[in-house]
Amino acid sequence: MGWVDTVNTKVATSRVGRYFQLDGSGAYRERKGTRFMTELRAGATTFFAMAYIISVNASIISESGGHCVCDSTPEDPVCDNNTEYLNCIFRMKLDMIMATAIIAMIASVLIGVFANLPLGLAPGMGLNAYFTYNVVGYHGTGGTPYKVALAAVLIEGCIFFLLSVFGIRQWLARIIPMSIKVAMGCGIGMYLCFIGLQSSAGIGLVGLDTTTLVTLGACPDWAKDELGACTGHTMESPHTWMGILGLVLIVLLMMYRVPGALLIGIVFISITSWPRVSAVTYFPYTEVGQTMFDYFKKVVTVHPLDNVLGQFEFDLTSREIWIALITFLYVDILDTTGTMYSMARYGGFTDKTGDFEHSTAAFMSDAISVIVGACFGSSPCTAFVESGAGIAEGGRTGITAITVAFGFFISIFFSPIFASFPPWATGSALIIVGSMMMAGVRNINWDYPGDAIPAFITITVMPFTYSIAYGLIGGIISYIVINGIIYIIDKASFGRIRPDYSMRENWWTAAFSRSFLPHWIRYLYCKSVGRPIPWHEDEYEFDSDAEKEDDEHPHAVVVGGDSIHDGMSSNDMSVLNHQRYREKGEFYES
């Protein structure tokens, strides 16, 4: 037995191993195949996969202007050329780098310790873009001040916590049609890609056009007019070509399944952009460039959080702030809930209804993370899809999440490095993350127009209006109008005029199959009236309970990388899944 096996055995048989349900710990529903050293490796993989959020989130949130005041002029309405204002923005970016690392550290510890899930949490991509560009506005040009927007995020986190405690959060997520929920994630992916293609927080491939709104850009700064539109020399910007190089590098690394491909691509492009003598330098010989370079040379330092910590202003009189609050609440419900369910299913600890162990604790931890994020000046936190990289490495318990938190703790002391990642380095990561979020489009029910058209509206309206809220509202309203009219015609004609319902998505079966009340309320009720306590009413068969599976769910075997049920071909399984989905709104577990 080597030292690795010795460590795994000792940890598994300890109280720590029992708490985290490691294999061999003797814990109830211990997670088969889990090892302490494997969890550490998985946590490191997840951290490297999502560490890009430190610089990307800081770049996006600082674009809001934060506490900085822009003295606009007709020649410079958004202070893009105001040196004092840009220095203030840079100082806020330094604060946000520290804050993002601290938020991710606290959030990942919470989800690991209290929910025992191998997930990394941090300020969410998409939500930070909505916070900056829609709520506060670029350099504060929106209808809501930065401090008021943070107050809205804080209130959202408190509401989030109450909804999680009383089980309403899970129910709200279930009543939205599946096609809309999937389309919303895809639309956010398109939104992130659009941001990554622009110059403010991306590679600058897309530029302004006064006639068509957008066009091919990538011209040097000296070839732009006063509005920022290219007057010529498109595709001659060295920064854009560096961003394209980073994009290609990340894709190649991902194809070879290299852990941390996003971070490697960002770091490579950043390092090549640091020398001041190159044409692609991030530190030009200007006043702003010199300020950034002086901070970069510190390498290791701890930056104060004077400009972002506890910056609240509870002015809730404007209509815009309530729209932002509701949008934050609902988008976060769907985004985080969908990610958690997806990662739990990927990890193999979901039950036959799609629920997962410690789901209530996970939702409460996420709500507390939103509150923590608001206190540190950032947009809402969410679970990251990059957690799948760690799960693929064997992570199955909260030890993975705690390892992720440790990685963010170390990064706190290296904020000068993370502050020096240029937008053309992080923009390629935004494009890649957008493509990853678009992968869910295959799960939209394109066979039935009543499901497909609202989903398509949701996806397209988000990037075209530069608003997640408008996309979500457009999708829900179009679904209600289209299917509501069909329902009225069906009832008015006594069923004689109706479309082909066989291709319709049956989402309501799953939505209303579970009790609305959470388990702890039913427990208190039964305790008060003297009824038997429903200890196992909500307990379903998990993947770790394979020996208890009944005849209604045939066992799955893996042949050539495809999941096939015993005695059935892959084609038969596909037909069976399709039939079951249409009839009951669910798939067989595989």
UniProtKB/TrEMBL annotation:
Its main location: membrane. GO terms for biological process: adenine transport; guanine transport. One of its GO terms (molecular function) is purine nucleobase transmembrane transporter activity. The chain crosses the membrane at residues 96-117, 148-168, 188-208, 244-269, 321-341, 361-385, 397-418, 424-441, 472-489. One of its GO terms (cellular component) is plasma membrane. It is a multi-pass membrane protein. InterPro entries: Azg-like, NCS2. Keywords: Membrane, Transmembrane, Transmembrane helix, Transport. It is found in: Endomembrane system. Belongs to the nucleobase:cation symporter-2 (NCS2) (TC 2.A.40) family. Azg-like subfamily. This is Permease family-domain-containing protein. It comes from Phascolomyces articulosus. The lineage of its organism: Eukaryota, Fungi, Fungi incertae sedis, Mucoromycota, Mucoromycotina.
